[in-house]
Design brief:
alpha+beta, 2 domains, three-stranded antiparallel beta sheet, about 15% strand, elongated, binds zinc ion
Length: about 110
């Protein structure tokens, strides 16, 4: 048997649900703002010798990663890992002959900044 609800009970319930929806919206907005703030902070960390944009530290080794042909990019460890993750993902959609190479960090030549 359903409990008997008054008009007031129903209005209170509706109000509570509306409040919940509104709070969810606020949480989503705040979460998005937080994400933007964190992304901005991540971008602030830059190894001056690195060509990448995903540095985790402002100091440390940079190494030479071939990008095909005669070109190279100079990357720190964080940016190298980001690049390799991207290449692995791309490789899943490329034919065997077009796949990116996935050299290990240890195999890369250390770049001596002048
Ligand atoms: Zn970097």
């Amino acid at each position: 048997m359903k409990p008997k609800l008054s008009q007031q009970d129903l209005e209170n319930a509706l109000h509570a649900v509306d409040r919940l929806i509104s709070v969810q919206g606020e949480v989503a907005t705040k979460t998005q703002e937080l994400r933007t703030a964190i992304k901005a902070r991540v971008g602030e960390i830059q190894n001056p010798n690195c060509d990448g944009a995903h540095c985790r530290f402002s100091k440390g080794d940079v190494r030479v990663l071939p990008t095909g042909g005669d070109s190279n990019i100079i990357l720190c460890r964080g940016c190298y890992e980001h690049e390799i993750r991207w290449r692995k993902e791309r490789n899943q959609k490329l034919s065997r002959y077009d796949r990116f190479l996935l050299p290990t960090w240890q195999s890369l030549r250390v770049y001596e900044a002048s």
